[in-house]
C-alpha cells in the first residue's frame, strides 16, 4: 500500500527540515547541561536568521551573512547566560524576555532597514554542495546536494558526544548542571563556565537560524522560526539531553514536518493548517505515551549563588 | 503588596522606557516625540482612553491566568492556545445555540472557560504523572490550537467567503457600557474577577495552600497539602481564565471568531503577570500599562514615523529589568565588589 506523501523526496526533505532543529537542540544541550534552562532558543534562532540575511544583503556574500548571523546568536546566548548568572534572575523569564526582544528587534529593524514589514528581498544564499561520486550513486540524492549546514549539523552529533562525554571540559560542564557546589569546590568558576556554555548554545542555535534563512530559503520573513526553537527544546527533552537521543528526536520531528509538507501538496482541498498542526500534535502524543518519568540535569534553572544550598 | 515591591516595579518600568529611548536614539529616531505620541494616542482623548481600556480587558484575564499559575509554581505559556479554543467555543455557542438573552452570553462564557480548563488539564496531568515540564507541553499545545482553530474556520465552520465563523446572535453579545465606544461589559467582569482572586488568596485556606505549593512544594506536601492536585487545579484555573479571555473578546468585541482576533494576548499575559508581580490588583495596573503602549503604538507609527514594533522592544526591556529584579542599591553593591 502506498502511504500518501511518503517518497524518497520526503526523506531528502527530512534532512533539510531536521537541520535547524538539530543545531538548536545541540545548542540547548550545552546550556542545559551546564544548568541554564534555555527557552530562548526560539529568539536566538530568529535573531540569527535575521542578521544573517542583513549580512548577506549588504555584502552580497552568504559566508559573511553566516558569520554575522552566528555572532548575533552568540550575543543572545551570552545575554541569557550573563543575565541568569550575574543577576541571578529567573532563567525561564529571561528566556521569554529574550524571545520577545528578538521578535521586536527583528520586526523593528526589518521595517527600519528594508522600508516595509513582512519580509526582506531575496539575498545570496548558502551554496548547495554536491559530493563527488556519492552524488551519482543510487539514492545519492539523500547524501549530496545540500547546503553546508546540513552536513555540519549531522557531523556535530559525534563531535558533541565526544566533547560532552570524553573531554575534561565536558565532564566539568555536566558537573555544573548536576552539582555546582562540587564544581565550585574544585575551583571551577561556575558563573563564567555557564555564561560560556550559554554563549556556545547561542552559536549552535544561531547556525540553526542561518540554516533557515540562508539555507532553506534566501530571505527573512517576520516570525519565520514559527516555534522551531521550542520544538528543538522539546526534542532535547525527549532526547534525554544526550546528543544521540537528540539526533533521533529531531529526525522524527524533521520527518513529520517534511511529510506534512508533502501531504499539503497532495490534498489541496484540505486547509493546509490541518497538516501544519501535525508535527506539534505528534510530539505531544509521543510525550504523553512514550516518555517515562523525566530527569533533567539536577541544577537546571537555578542560578548558582556561592554558599547557598540549592 | 508591600510598598518596596511597588516602588521597585515602577523603577523597572522606568528603566525599560529609558532603555527603549536609548534604542530609539541609537537608531536615529526622536524618543521624545515617540513617547509623546504613544501616550497621547492612549490617553489624549476620552475615546482613546475607552479604547485603551477595551484593549486592557483580555490582558487582565490572561494576566490573571499566568499570575495564578505562577503563584502555584507553574508556568502556563499555553494561555494563547486556551484563549483561542475558548474563544472559538464561545463563538459557536453564540452563533448556533438559541438561548434566552442574559443567559446566552453567560453560557457561552462558561463553556469557553471550561474548554480552556480542559486544555489546562493536559499539561497538569503530564507534569504530575510524567514529570514533563509544563512549559514545553503548553508551547506545543499552542501551535496545535493555533493551527487547529484556523483549520476549523477555513474548513468545517467557515461562513461566507472569508475564513471566519458565523456571527453570534444579538442575544449573546455583551453590552457596550459607554455608548459611542467599543468598551464593553467584559471590562467590568475582568475587574470583578481580579478582586475575586484577590479575596481568595488573602482570605481562604485554599488560597493559602495554593501559594504554599508555589513557595515550597516539598514542605507543603509534608504539611498535608495535596500538591499534585494543586498543580493540576492551578493549570485548569489558569486555562479557564485564558478561555474566558477569548470568550469575552468574542462576545463583547468581535462577535465572531477569526484566526487573527488575538494578537498574542495569551503571551502578553506573561508580561502582565510579571509586571503585576502576580498580585491580582497589580495585574489590573500592568494590563493598563501594556494597553497604553499598544493603543499608543498606532499613533507612534502614524505621527512619529517610528515602526510600531518599537513597543515590543520596550516591553521586552521592561520584562528583562523585572526578571533580573533590577534595583539601584543591589546594582551598586554588585559594582562595588561582592560583599558576600
Structure, explained:
- By secondary structure, chain A is mostly helical.
- Chain A has a domain at 21-224.
- Chain A is 67% helix and 0% strand.
- Chain A contains 12 helices and no strands.
- Chain A has helices at 8-33, 41-59, 62-86, 91-114, 148-166, 168-178, 180-185, 190-216, 228-238, 243-266, 273-276, 278-290.
- The longest helix of chain A has 27 residues, at 190-216.
- Chain A is globular.
- The N and C termini of chain A lie far apart (56 Å).
- Chain B has helices spanning 3-26, 31-43, 46-71, 79-96, 103-130, 134-154, 186-203, 205-215, 217-222, 227-254, 265-275, 280-304, 310-323, 328-335.
- By secondary structure, chain B is mainly alpha-helical.
- In chain B, helix 3 (46-71) packs antiparallel against helix 10, helix 4 packs across helix 11 and helix 7 (186-203) packs across helix 8 (205-215).
- The model of chain B is unreliable at 332-340 (pLDDT under 50).
- The interface between A and B is large, with 50 and 46 residues.
Amino acid at each position: 500500500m502506498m502511504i500518501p506523501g511518503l517518497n524518497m523526496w520526503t526523506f531528502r526533505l527530512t534532512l533539510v527540515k531536521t537541520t535547524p532543529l538539530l543545531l538548536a537542540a545541540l545548542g540547548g544541550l550545552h546550556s542545559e547541561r551546564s544548568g541554564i534552562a534555555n527557552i530562548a532558543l526560539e529568539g536566538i534562532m530568529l535573531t540569527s536568521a535575521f542578521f544573517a540575511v542583513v549580512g548577506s544583503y549588504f555584502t552580497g556574500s552568504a559566508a559573511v551573512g553566516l558569520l554575522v548571523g552566528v555572532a548575533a546568536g552568540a550575543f543572545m546566548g551570552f545575554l541569557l547566560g550573563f543575565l541568569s548568572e550575574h543577576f541571578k534572575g529567573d532563567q525561564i523569564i529571561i528566556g521569554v524576555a529574550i524571545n520577545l526582544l528578538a521578535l521586536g528587534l527583528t520586526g523593528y529593524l526589518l521595517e527600519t532597514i528594508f522600508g516595509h514589514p513582512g519580509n526582506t528581498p531575496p539575498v545570496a544564499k548558502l551554496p548547495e554542495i554536491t559530493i563527488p561520486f556519492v552524488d551519482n550513486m543510487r539514492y545519492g540524492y539523500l547524501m549530496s546536494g545540500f547546503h553546508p549546514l546540513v552536513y555540519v549539523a549531522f557531523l556535530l552529533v559525534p563531535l558533541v558526544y565526544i566533547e560532552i562525554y570524553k573531554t575534561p571540559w565536558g565532564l566539568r560542564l555536566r558537573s555544573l548542571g548536576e552539582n555546582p557546589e562540587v564544581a565550585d569546590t574544585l575551583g571551577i568558576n561556575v558563573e563564567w563556565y555557564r555564561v560560556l556554555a550559554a554563549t556556545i548554545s547561542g552559536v549552535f542555535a544561531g547556525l540553526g537560524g542561518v540554516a533557515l534563512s540562508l539555507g532553506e530559503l534566501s530571505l527573512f520573513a517576520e516570525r519565520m522560526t514559527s516555534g522551531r526553537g521550542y520544538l528543538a527544546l522539546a526534542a532535547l527533552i525527549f532526547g534525554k539531553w544526550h546528543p544521540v537521543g537528540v539526533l533521533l528526536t529531531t529526525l522524527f520531528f524533521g520527518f513529520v514536518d517534511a511529510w506534512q509538507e508533502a501531504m499539503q501538496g497532495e490534498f489541496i482541498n484540505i486547509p493546509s493548517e490541518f497538516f501544519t498542526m501535525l508535527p506539534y500534535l505528534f510530539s505531544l502524543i509521543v510525550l504523553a505515551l512514550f516518555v517515562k518519568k523525566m530527569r533533567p540535569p539536577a541544577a537546571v534553572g537555578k542560578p548558582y549563588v556561592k554558599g547557598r544550598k540549592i | 503588596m508591600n510598598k518596596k515591591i511597588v516602588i521597585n516595579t515602577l523603577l523597572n518600568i522606568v528603566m525599560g522606557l529609558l532603555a527603549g529611548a536609548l534604542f530609539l536614539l541609537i537608531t536615529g529616531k526622536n524618543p521624545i516625540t515617540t513617547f509623546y505620541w504613544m501616550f497621547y494616542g492612549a490617553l489624549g482623548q476620552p475615546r482613546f482612553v475607552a479604547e485603551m481600556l477595551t484593549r486592557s480587558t483580555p490582558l487582565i484575564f490572561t494576566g490573571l491566568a499566568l499570575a495564578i499559575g505562577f503563584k502555584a509554581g507553574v508556568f502556563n505559556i499555553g494561555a494563547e492556545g486556551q484563549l483561542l479554543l475558548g474563544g472559538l467555543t464561545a463563538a459557536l455557542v453564540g452563533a448556533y445555540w438559541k438561548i434566552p438573552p442574559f443567559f446566552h452570553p453567560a453560557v457561552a462564557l462558561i463553556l469557553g472557560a471550561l474548554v480552556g480548563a480542559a486544555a489546562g488539564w493536559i499539561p497538569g496531568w503530564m507534569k504530575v504523572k510524567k514529570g514533563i515540564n509544563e512549559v514545553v507541553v503548553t508551547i506545543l499545545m499552542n501551535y496545535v490550537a493555533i493551527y487547529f482553530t484556523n483549520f476549523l474556520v477555513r474548513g468545517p465552520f467557515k461562513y461566507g467567503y472569508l475564513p471566519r465563523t458565523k456571527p453570534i446572535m444579538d442575544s449573546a453579545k455583551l453590552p457596550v457600557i459607554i455608548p459611542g465606544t467599543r468598551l464593553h461589559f467584559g471590562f467590568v467582569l475582568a475587574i470583578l474577577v481580579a478582586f475575586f482572586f484577590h479575596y481568595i488568596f488573602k482570605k481562604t485556606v485554599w488560597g493559602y495552600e495554593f501559594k504554599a505549593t508555589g513557595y515550597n512544594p516539598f514542605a507543603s506536601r509534608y504539611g498535608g497539602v495535596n500538591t499534585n492536585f494543586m498543580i493540576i487545579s492551578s493549570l485548569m484555573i489558569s486555562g479557564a481564565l485564558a478561555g474566558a479571555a477569548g470568550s469575552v473578546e468574542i462576545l463583547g468585541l468581535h462577535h465572531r471568531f477569526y484566526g487573527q482576533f488575538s494578537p498574542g494576548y495569551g503571551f502578553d499575559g506573561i508580561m502582565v503577570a510579571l509586571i503585576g508581580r502576580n498580585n491580582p490588583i497589580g495585574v489590573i495596573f500592568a494590563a493598563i500599562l501594556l494597553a497604553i503602549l499598544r493603543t499608543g503604538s498606532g499613533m507612534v507609527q502614524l505621527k512619529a514615523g517610528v515602526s510600531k514594533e518599537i513597543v515590543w522592544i520596550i516591553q521586552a526591556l521592561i520584562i528583562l529589568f523585572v526578571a533580573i529584579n533590577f534595583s539601584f542599591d543591589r546594582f551598586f553593591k554588585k559594582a562595588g565588589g561582592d560583599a558576600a
